[in-house]
Design a protein that fits this description.
Elements (H helix, E strand, L loop, with lengths): L6 H18 L4 H4 L8 H14 L6 H31 L8 H9 L17 H16 L7 H14 L21 H17 L1 H5 L3 H24 L12 H14 L8 H31 L3 H8 L2 H179 L1
Helix pairs in contact: 1-3, 1-11, 1-12, 1-14, 3-8, 3-11, 4-6, 6-8, 7-8, 8-11, 10-11, 12-14
Length: 491
């Protein structure tokens, strides 16, 4: 399914990227401290939009990782070359003094190496792309944890607060760093997960009135100002990039961008905002550093340099906007021309198809007439063949009647013979059944006779045994009487 192109998010990207440029290169610090911290929501909003557009489908993560890796490699190589050129101009050597600590900070904390405290060196903006790459890799590795986005997002926001703005409250210290600025854990990953949550709930969120989300943005800015005021009053202000008030600001701006009526996808303004924020991200850091280096060599006093530095961000925005506007107009015109050509070709194809259909209809009519003639001829032939078949059938039927009668007589004779045989067979079956019954009765009589003989033998045996017992008893009695008679004589 083709995804709907949302131009409102591109407008918000351009707006946030412009604010990020002003945040990095703006008026002198003594004049800008009052408003610059409030522009810190721009980076988080950029990551939220990226998460909204990139983490929708898990099957597309491999392509997103590949594109991020290619863009990061190109930017890293280009910024490294420019960094060596700056080192050559400023310090007379092509290679900056790097140690293991600087490399570790770049790999883990996304710190771009600086040169002897130089306030803003080329390549510092690469942390945005590096953090996005790390976050997409983590989302690909832990893709089964999508249902825990809310919990992970809350944990990371709490960690970013206590490792950034509230670092003094918990005495944070990591490798000698008192706080952690924007990197993949404190800025990119939580806001990208927030963007994915907004993508899931966009229908419910967009159902609310836009004024409600304007109120949410205002409430977020009020909370951020309250945090800044309280931290400044308690004298624990260390870093102001992870304010909790930026979260409702980001959510409100993203939903308002989704509710914004988008222009046509191939209009000039749509193509301009589509390419402007990308080229602005790639070019603003080197361009601003070149302009600041130019002003450093031209203006001798600090006041002149500060006045020139205050308009660097505006010069960068205008310098990037002019060629992108020209290219976007050309790109939009080319796209519209291709679309017009496609429409013309479509109309030509439709006309050709209509002509072909008309020809086919004419050919179909002619073919139908030819087929009707053929069918009429075939019908006439069929009538002739049917009449001939009827004649042959009548002739054949006359020859077959005699044979049929003969066969019928033979079958009747066979049936009579079979009927007689069946009657004989039934008589034999009845006789056989009578014989079987007689045999069963004889067997029963034999069994009864055997039983009576057994009973008689048992009776004779019992009688004989009783007679023997009586004779023995008589003999015993005779012996006893004899013994009784002989007893006194012996005494």
């Amino acid at each position: 399914m083709q995804k709907k192109y949302l131009t409102g998010l591109d407008f918000l990207r351009v707006f946030c990227m412009g604010l990020y440029v002003i945040l990095c290169y703006s008026l002198p610090l003594y004049f800008a401290e009052s408003y610059k911290p409030l522009l810190g929501f721009s980076a988080g909003t950029l990551f939220c939009i990226y998460g909204f557009c990139s983490l929708q489908d898990e099957t597309n993560l491999a392509e997103r990782i590949r594109r991020c890796l290619v863009a990061f490699s190109i930017c890293f190589a280009g910024y490294a070359v420019l960094l060596m050129l700056f080192c050559r101009v400023l310090y007379g050597t092509f290679f900056p003094a790097l140690d293991a600590r600087a490399l570790l900070n770049f790999a883990v904390l996304n710190y771009w190496p600086t040169l002897n405290g130089w306030p803003g060196i080329v390549g510092q903006s690469i942390w945005l792309l590096q953090a996005a790459l790390y976050s997409v890799l983590l989302c690909a590795l832990f893709r089964r944890c999508r249902k825990w986005d809310w919990l992970i997002c809350i944990i990371l926001f709490v960690f970013s607060f206590y490792s950034g703005d509230g670092a003094a409250l918990c005495h944070f210290n990591l490798l000698g760093n008192e706080y952690i600025p924007g990197n993949f854990l404190t800025r990119a990953l939580p806001y990208m997960l927030l963007g994915r949550i907004i993508w899931r709930k966009q229908q419910k969120l967009c159902a609310f009135h836009p004024l409600i989300w304007v109120g949410v943005v205002i409430v977020g800015f009020v909370l951020a100002m309250a945090e800044l005021y309280l931290f400044a009053r308690w004298e624990i202000m260390i870093y102001s990039g992870h304010l909790l008030g930026f979260i409702p600001v980001t959510v409100g701006l993203c939903v308002l961008a989704l509710q914004l009526p988008s222009p046509r996808e191939h209009s000039n303004i749509a193509v301009f905002v589509k390419y402007y924020y990308r080229w602005l991200y790639y070019a603003f850091n080197p361009l601003a550093e070149l302009l600041s280096l130019f002003g450093l060599f031209i203006y001798k006093t600090y006041a002149q340099y500060a006045l020139f530095y205050s308009v660097i961000s505006v010069l960068v925005l205008i310098t990037v906007a002019i060629p992108v506007a020209i290219l976007s107009v050309c790109k939009a015109a080319k796209t519209r021309l291709c679309l017009a050509q496609d429409r013309v070709s479509d109309t030509v194809e439709e006309n050709e198809l209509d002509a072909l259909e008309a020809l086919l209809e004419q050919n179909d009519k002619e073919a139908l007439q030819v087929q009707q003639q053929k069918l009429q001829q075939a019908a006439a032939r069929m009538k002739i063949t049917n009449s001939s078949m009827e004649i042959t059938d009548s002739q054949a039927s006359l020859g077959w009647i005699g044979e049929f009668n003969k066969r019928k007589e033979e079958q009747d004779a066979q049936a009579a013979v079979l009927g007689m045989n069946s009657e004989r067979f039934s008589e034999m079956e009845e006789k056989y059944s009578e014989q079987v019954e007689l045999r069963k009765t004889v067997a029963d009589l034999r069994a009864a006779a055997v039983e009576t003989v057994k009973e008689q033998t048992d009776r004779t045996r019992t009688a004989a045994s009783l007679g023997k017992r009586n004779a023995v008893v008589q003999n015993d009695e005779v012996l006893i009487s004899l013994l009784e008679d002989d007893g006194p004589k012996q005494k």
